[in-house]
Amino acid sequence: MANGKIISIDGMGGDHAPRIVVEGLERFAQRRSDLQFLLHGDEAQLKALLASAPTAAPRTTIRHTDKMISMDAKPADAVRRGKGSSMWNAIEAVKNGEAIAAVSAGNTGALMGQSMLILKKAEGVERPALAASLPSRVGPVAMLDLGADIAATAEQLVEFAIMGQAFARVVNGVANPRVALLNIGSEELKGHESIREAARLIRASNLQMDFRGYVEADKIGFGDIDVVVTDGFTGNVALKTAEGIAKMMSDMLKEAFKSGPLSILGYLLAMSALKKFRAKLDPRKGNGAVFLGLNGVVVKSHGGTDALGFEQAISVAAGMGESHFRTEVEDNLKRLAASVAVAASVAAVKEETAK
Fold it and tell me: Is the peptide bond before 145 cis (omega within 30 degrees of 0)?
């Protein structure tokens, strides 16, 4: 394992682990011959599954542990008692410099808590955020925070914008991402104070960012914005709403095309177009949310995904781990800190003058 970059993988996390984990690893290994893998979990189970993964097996080292975090574990318990688990060990390999990134489909709260404890927050980051890609008419849209925390101050929203911009560049391949704050309207006076202050800070901080102001939730799918920034509560609600509507549309289409002989004939005639439509909305292609703002890369795969989805999560981890993401974020955070310091100094002078 000394030669080549390494991805660290929690082999036991997820609803269908470890089978789906190994199947996804094999799919990814067939695409990337230059990477190696650390697979954490029950050695007997993982070794048996790797016997059917001829591409991944020669480049995979199993790190045995019989300890794992259940999907229904309370985050606090998982952090307190998680040391030595497959999830913990996968993250620790990043901290120790063995791996460029870690991937897990396990318990989200546990993964966030353990990642925070092991990797710590990056310098200049007040609060980490969870970022992922959503589909739109023209391509993926990065959105954060999706639930790492509930609320966010103006400065934290600006941090999210900085990290989200870098995420969109690395994961979605957007050279100059268009960034906007999620709001209830596009007018400057709309929204609560923290959103308006975040917009002011972005414009005043000389950030290297294509900031487009505000975007409303119903415009996200148009693809006119590449990065949508919001607090964790609103982001998680928006994400779950989008997922629910997509599933509802899929179920309604299935019911409509099964309603009679003519409907079935219509389905057969429209099958090619429907397959393209389904492919655009396939959540597996956007699988792989990243905990941004830590001293290392940790990717959260959806717990119920299949091999294709887990392959995508590994791909996100590889892209983030190989990128200059942290350098770009650090440079913009310094600009933000300088702007905040100047604003605080001006405010202090005004206060002193007013006395």
Answer: yes
Q: Answer for the pair 154, 277: CB distance below 8 angstroms, yes or no.
A: no
- Rounded to a whole number of angstroms, the CA Rg of the chain reads 22
pLDDT value of position 206? 77
CB contact at 8 A, 207 and 345: no
Among the residues of the chain, which ranges form H helices? 19-31, 43-50, 75-81, 86-95, 108-119, 154-171, 193-204, 232-257, 261-269, 271-280, 307-322, 325-354
- DSSP assignment string, 99-147: -SEEEE-S-HHHHHHHHHHHH-BPTT-SS-EEEEEE--SSS-EEEE-SS
What amino acid occupies position 38?
A: L
Taking the C-alpha atoms of residue 181 and residue 94, their distance in angstroms, rounded to an integer, is 32
- Among residues 246, 284, 293, which one has the least CA distance to residue 105? 284
Contacts of 185 (CB under 8 A, 6+ apart): 191, 214, 216
CB atoms within 10 A of CB 49: 22
Separation of alpha carbons 141 and 132, rounded Å: 8
d(Cα 148, Cα 127) in Å, to the nearest integer? 9
Query: Partners of 129 in the beta sheet?
Result: 292
Specify the 3-state DSSP secondary structure of 250.
helix
Q: Spell 173-204 as b/e; 16+ CB within 10 A means b.
A: ebeebbbbbbbeeeeeeebeebbbbbbebbee
Decide if 286 contacts 132 (C-beta within 8 A): yes
State the distance between the two ends of the chain, measured CA to CA, in whole angstroms: 66
**pLDDT, mean of each 10-residue run, the chain (355 residues):** 77 93 96 94 96 96 94 86 93 95 93 92 86 86 88 90 90 91 84 88 85 91 92 89 81 80 75 70 77 92 91 92 79 72 58 62
The C-alpha atoms of residue 18 and residue 41 are separated, in whole angstroms, by: 8
Amino acid type, 108: T
Distance CA 129, CA 155 (A): 13
Torsion angles phi and psi, residue 351, rounded to 5? -65, -40
Total count of residues recorded for the chain: 355
